[in-house]
Amino acid sequence: MSAEDLEQYESKLELDLYREYKDVVNIFTYAVETERRFYLCNAVDLKVRTEGGDVYYEVSMGDAWVWDMYRPARFVKSAKVLTFRDVSIEEIAHSEFQLPEDR
User: What single DSSP character describes residue 28?
Assistant: First the structure.
């Protein structure tokens, strides 16, 4: 496999992942971003932990979708992330009406 073939393969995976994201985003309530992953979920709990003077975050999510093009299964029942870095949690604003797609 050439470098160009690999790049095309990864580009296709990323485009497929983006299309899947567009299809599923409306069924989730929260978007969670950590330094390693992006998640969509319907339940999220953030706890700040301290141990030995260090601060870290414990993020628990339920009914989640993981943005990772190399995962064979992106839907997970629950996920827990421990991180020393920033965590962003946003409630997704869902529009009451949807514009028709261009055909």
Answer: -
